[in-house]
Amino acid sequence: MSETIDFDYLVLGGGSGGLATAKRAAELGARVALLEPAELGGTCVHRGCVPKKILWNAAEVAHHLHHAGEYGWSPPAATSFDWPGMAKKRVAYLERLGGIYARQLEQRGIVHVRAAGRLEGEGRVRAGEQLLRARHIVIATGGLPYRPNLPGAEWGLTSDDFFQLPALPARAAVVGAGYIAVELASVLAALGSEVQLLVRGNRLLKAFDARLGQQLTEAFVAQGITVQFDHAVKTVEKTADSQIVVTGADGRCEPFDALFWATGRVPNLLQLGLDTVGISPDPDGVLRVDAQARTPVEGLYAIGDVTGEPALTPVAIAAGRRLAERLFGHGNPPPIDPEMVPSVVFTHPPVASVGLSEMQARDRFGDAVRVYESAFVPLYHAMTEDKPRTVVKLVTTGDEERVVGLHMIGPGVDEALQGFSVAIRMGATKADFDHTIAIHPTTAEEVVTLR
C-alpha cells in the first residue's frame, strides 16, 4: 500500500485558475501540491487566449496591409502568410511561458505532481501511484471542446486542433455562433481562407447584446465571410481526396478543406471520481458551487470552467486567488459578480461588453431602462474605401440613470472597455459619464458624449 503524503491544499488542474490558487495559497504559508499531467498553463496558454491573440495580431497586420495603399504606402505586389513560421515562433513563446510557470511553482515550494488526480474520499486524492491527502481540495480542471453527436462528426476539428494545423485550409467551414466560432472565422478569413460560418440559429453572439451580433454580421459579410443562418448540420463525410462534405438538414451539400466545430465547451469532470464523494454534475454538466466556491462536500471546492461561471481566464484567476485567501488568509474577499465581468471577442472588428444587455435590463427594470446609442464610421476608415461602422451602446436604469451595461464593436473597443468596467462596477451614472472630459479623437470619447 502506498504511503499517504499530507498537504494543506491539493489543486487538481494546472490551468489559469489552478495556478493562481496554488500560488496564492503557498504565499500565505500553505503546503500545496498541484496535480497536472499536461503542460502548465492549460487551455488559455496553449490552446486559447494567448495563441489566439497572437493570431489575432497577425490578422490585424493583414487588415492594415489591405489598407496600406489608402494610407499612402506602396504595398508589396503580393503578400502571403507564413503559417508554419508563425506557428514555430508561437510554440517557442508558449514553451517559455510554461517554463516560467514551473519556476514560479518551484520558487513557492509547490509540489508539481505530473499526474491527473482522482478523488477517493476523506480528503484523499489518487495521483498515479501516489496517495495524497489534504483538508482542502479544489477542482480546477477546466473544459474541453464540445463535439456534436451526429454521423461523421469525427471528421470535424475543434478549437484545440486549430493550433495544430500544418497549413491553413483554402476553404473552411466553422459551425457555431458564439465567441469561439466567430473568432475562428475572423482569423481564418483574414489570413487567407475562404470561410463559411454555419449558424443553427438566426444571430451571432447570442450571449451578447443583439446589436453587437447584428453589426458583426454586417462586418463579416463585407469582409467576404459567408454567414449562413438557420443552417443545421445533419451529416459529415470525408471523400477519397480528403474533402470534408457537410450536409445540412435542408439537404444542401458543400465540400470544404476543413470543418471546425465551435459549438461550445464542456466541463472536464469525467475522470475525477466525483461519485466516490457523493456528488455529480448538474444536468448542464457543470459542478455547482456557492458564492464561496464550496461544493456540497466539506473541504471540496471548484473554480473556473467546471462551475458554470463565465468561462474566462480572469474569472478563474480571481476565483482561485479569493478562495486561497478565504482558506489560508485572514480576510473574506467579496464573491465575483458574474454580471460585472467584462468580456471581449477578438474578431475584426473586436466586440466588447460589460453588464446587462438591453433585453436583460428591460426584463429586470422594465420602463425604467433608457438606452443611448451611437453608430459612426471611425476616423481610421475615413481614409479607406470600406466604411464599417463602430457602435457604442449604453444601458441605464432609474431616475439617476445608473449605468448597468456598455456594449461596443469597432477598432480599439477591446482596450477601451477595461476602464469603463471599473466605473460601471462602482455605480457610475450617465451624469458621471457626461461630466467626464473626452479624449479626442478616439472611439472611447463616444461613451462620454452620448446624447
TrEMBL record:
<dbReference type="GO" id="GO:0034599">
    <property type="term" value="P:cellular response to oxidative stress"/>
</dbReference>
<keyword id="KW-0285">Flavoprotein</keyword>
<dbReference type="InterPro" id="IPR001100">
    <property type="entry name" value="Pyr_nuc-diS_OxRdtase"/>
</dbReference>
<dbReference type="GO" id="GO:0045454">
    <property type="term" value="P:cell redox homeostasis"/>
</dbReference>
<dbReference type="InterPro" id="IPR012999">
    <property type="entry name" value="Pyr_OxRdtase_I_AS"/>
</dbReference>
<comment type="similarity">
    <text>Belongs to the class-I pyridine nucleotide-disulfide oxidoreductase family.</text>
</comment>
<comment type="subunit">
    <text>Homodimer.</text>
</comment>
<dbReference type="InterPro" id="IPR004099">
    <property type="entry name" value="Pyr_nucl-diS_OxRdtase_dimer"/>
</dbReference>
<keyword id="KW-0547">Nucleotide-binding</keyword>
<protein>
    <submittedName>
        <fullName>Glutathione-disulfide reductase</fullName>
        <ecNumber>1.8.1.7</ecNumber>
    </submittedName>
</protein>
<feature type="binding site">
    <location>
        <position position="305"/>
    </location>
    <ligand>
        <name>NAD(+)</name>
    </ligand>
</feature>
<dbReference type="InterPro" id="IPR023753">
    <property type="entry name" value="FAD/NAD-binding_dom"/>
</dbReference>
<feature type="domain" description="FAD/NAD(P)-binding">
    <location>
        <begin position="7"/>
        <end position="320"/>
    </location>
</feature>
<dbReference type="GO" id="GO:0005829">
    <property type="term" value="C:cytosol"/>
</dbReference>
<keyword id="KW-0560">Oxidoreductase</keyword>
<feature type="domain" description="Pyridine nucleotide-disulphide oxidoreductase dimerisation">
    <location>
        <begin position="341"/>
        <end position="450"/>
    </location>
</feature>
<keyword id="KW-0274">FAD</keyword>
<feature type="binding site">
    <location>
        <position position="264"/>
    </location>
    <ligand>
        <name>NAD(+)</name>
    </ligand>
</feature>
<feature type="binding site">
    <location>
        <position position="117"/>
    </location>
    <ligand>
        <name>FAD</name>
    </ligand>
</feature>
<dbReference type="GO" id="GO:0006749">
    <property type="term" value="P:glutathione metabolic process"/>
</dbReference>
<feature type="active site" description="Proton acceptor">
    <location>
        <position position="440"/>
    </location>
</feature>
<dbReference type="Pfam" id="PF07992">
    <property type="entry name" value="Pyr_redox_2"/>
</dbReference>
<feature type="binding site">
    <location>
        <begin position="176"/>
        <end position="183"/>
    </location>
    <ligand>
        <name>NAD(+)</name>
    </ligand>
</feature>
<keyword id="KW-0520">NAD</keyword>
<keyword id="KW-1015">Disulfide bond</keyword>
<feature type="binding site">
    <location>
        <position position="53"/>
    </location>
    <ligand>
        <name>FAD</name>
    </ligand>
</feature>
<keyword id="KW-0676">Redox-active center</keyword>
<dbReference type="InterPro" id="IPR036188">
    <property type="entry name" value="FAD/NAD-bd_sf"/>
</dbReference>
<dbReference type="InterPro" id="IPR016156">
    <property type="entry name" value="FAD/NAD-linked_Rdtase_dimer_sf"/>
</dbReference>
<dbReference type="GO" id="GO:0050660">
    <property type="term" value="F:flavin adenine dinucleotide binding"/>
</dbReference>
<dbReference type="InterPro" id="IPR046952">
    <property type="entry name" value="GSHR/TRXR-like"/>
</dbReference>
<dbReference type="Pfam" id="PF02852">
    <property type="entry name" value="Pyr_redox_dim"/>
</dbReference>
<dbReference type="GO" id="GO:0004362">
    <property type="term" value="F:glutathione-disulfide reductase (NADPH) activity"/>
</dbReference>
<feature type="disulfide bond" description="Redox-active">
    <location>
        <begin position="44"/>
        <end position="49"/>
    </location>
</feature>
